[in-house]
Amino acid sequence: MHHRMLPERRTLPFALFERWLEQRLSELAEWPDIHRPIERFARWHHLKSLRLKLEAGALNMDTATRSAKQEITEAGKLLRWLLEERGTIADGLQQEHVDEYLAEGTSTRKHIRNFVHWLRPGRPRSRTVTAPHRAAKSMLLLTLSQRIELVRNCLDFEQVTLSTRVAALIFLLWAHPLVKIAALTSDRVEMPASGMTITLGTKPAAVPALVAPLFWEHVSSRSNQQTANTRTNWLFPGFRAGQHIHHQTLSERFLVLGIDPQRARNTALQDLTREVDARSLIDLLGYSSATIVQHAVRAGVPMSDYVDFHRSDHPRDKID
Length: 320
Description:
The chain has helices at 12-27, 32-55, 61-86, 95-104, 113-119, 144-156, 162-174, 178-182, 212-220, 247-254, 261-275, 278-285, 289-298; strands at residues 189-190, 197-198, 205-206. It is an all-alpha fold. The chain folds into 2 domains: 12-126, no CATH class; 144-318, hpI Integrase, Chain A, CATH 1.10.443. The protein has a 3-stranded antiparallel sheet, with helices on one face. A hairpin with a 6-residue loop joins strand 2 and strand 3 (205-206). The two termini are 30 Å apart. Residues 307-320 have low confidence and may be disordered.
């Protein structure tokens, strides 16, 4: 496919999701009152949404399909509980059922939210049945010294693959999502007269002089270029022809450098919101305004909620 000897196929995560969905629906066939709403929810909500993402060239298909699987699975558990414990079906779902179900179960039950709103559509204020967001009780963060130590590990641990160290630096310095780091292309890194830059959002960000030589060395001699991935434009080529590295592989490799992705991302975003105004940060990082504002508020940035993240005239406001 990479060398155009075979036609392109749909992404593997989407193909696997379609296979999983057929198997999941067949398992529910003996309970028609559960099967019918789950099939409609899966096909007309998730499958339709995933196809649109695929056609738009979304980079996070693996994450999107995992999320869809979890919501479909949890929706099925809700309907089974409703039938066995309360003797009713989806059409009889009431707010007290949702409240009771969420109160007595595990945290994974929060994933019924989209299904409940799909069953009872309407404006938020007029819904008769809703499921609340589950807010995190605390945010995991690194100290300044811990973050500096991780950056130092990326510079000093020469026994670790260069590509892993460069990817980790992009993550530690700019909190770029792993899915997007894995799918970066080499032309995102440029070397103008003013100094090296990397484009993660709509505007280029300056690469610190301390780490620029490491970036340039990686761009000049990327791995997996001598086999099936010859002449590929991926910044982090994978082992499969024409494919970039998988984001899960990056996450696993980061552990060698001592990086906890959740803590590192939260810390980097909070530090960045203190140093750069929200609108500029949205352009530099490619995050949605809602995400940046949320971290700015948590960081205690003055007037951090000033940015109107409901504006539709800014292209980054449409992407999470």
